[in-house]
Amino acid sequence: MQSRRARSLPRRPASSTPLIAVTAGEPAGIGPDLCVGLARLRLPARIVVVADRDLLKQRARRLGMPITVVDFPAGPGPRPRSAVLHVLHVPLARAARAGRLDPVNSRAVLRTLEIAADGCLAGTFDAMVTAPLQKSVMLDAGIPFTGHTEFLAAHTGAAHVVMMLVGGGMRVALATTHVALRDVAASITRDSLTRTLQVLRGDLKNLFGVARPRILVAGLNPHAGESGFLGREDVEVIGPVVRKLRRMGYDVAGPLPADTLFRPDRLKDGDCVLAMYHDQGLPVLKYASFGAGVNVTLGLPIIRTSVDHGTALELAGTGKAKTGSLLEAIELAATLAASRKRPARAA
To answer: Are 329 and 129 in contact (CB under 8 A)?
Structure first.
């Protein structure tokens, strides 16, 4: 259900320059620093930062970045003399301090996600980009929060979502996301894996413009189970799903041993790798692209991208935070928003 705030925002013509909502993330982290820095950069889309305006002004002063904060939607007025940051104001419960987590602000942080998502559903925004959150402080506030991916899936009513990271010349999607390692095997069922591959193939076509996606599926166990001697999941779950989808016309291969899957000569045969769990696939991608990678949530009724790093509390307010991943996330969000109007291309 859309919030009253989202319903009150204007709907724009689909042909206009993309308008992207950027949530500032954890107030004590580097998210506000990165958002303030956007005011001085040439961007591929118009940006609205969803955050507490006073937080952004305070962080800009601390960083020595003169900016003018303009409320969204902006009315007529004199042209500002400094760089402009358009902000959809969501007040914090208490003034935030760089590097100091405060659970009392967690509800307001979640509200920024709701407003950005609702704005996308309402057609006000073409996409949303998220700066990093701190899961631990959400839990300290009594909020059962496991991550952006799961929260946005529940909020938008998405039946099945998939986390995928893009960077270093690779696309790596995950069959499971924020799950303890001991629970991974039980979380991978024939049904869940089938739905993951359906979402992955669909969004590679519809968002990324790949006409016939080639998907490389990693095995769960060492050597993809060694014919069942190192675990039965590859034989009894992953293999049967891959064979069924191949009969349905999917270009999918696996289960493939994960320790050799990320060789360049192997990756050239696929448009995306599906890893079975978080730390099976993402260390390779982040090694190749950290600070410039992008997290994409597939299966949502909206476009959402994010940075590939955490809140970096120790860097907040120091001026040392790098904007690379946020810029890549904005660039990709703008590209994906435009891709919905273009036919898929051949792989």
So the answer is: yes
Domain identity same for 217 and 227: yes
**Which CATH number belongs to the domain containing residue 236 in this structure?**
3.40.718.10
Per-residue pLDDT tens over the stretch 204-255: 999 999 999 999 999 999 999 899 999 999 999 999 999 999 999 999 999 9
For 246, the enclosing helix (H) or strand (E) is: helix 239-247
Contacts of 301 (CB under 8 A, 6+ apart): 121, 156, 157, 158
pTM value surpassing 0.70: yes
Backbone torsion region of residue 225, taken as left when φ is above 0, otherwise alpha when ψ lies between -120 and 50, otherwise beta: left
Number of domains in the chain: 2
Question: What is the residue range of 171's domain?
Answer: 160-299
Euclidean distance between CA atoms 37 and 328, whole angstroms: 14
Of 209, 217, 198, the closest CA to residue 335 belongs to 209
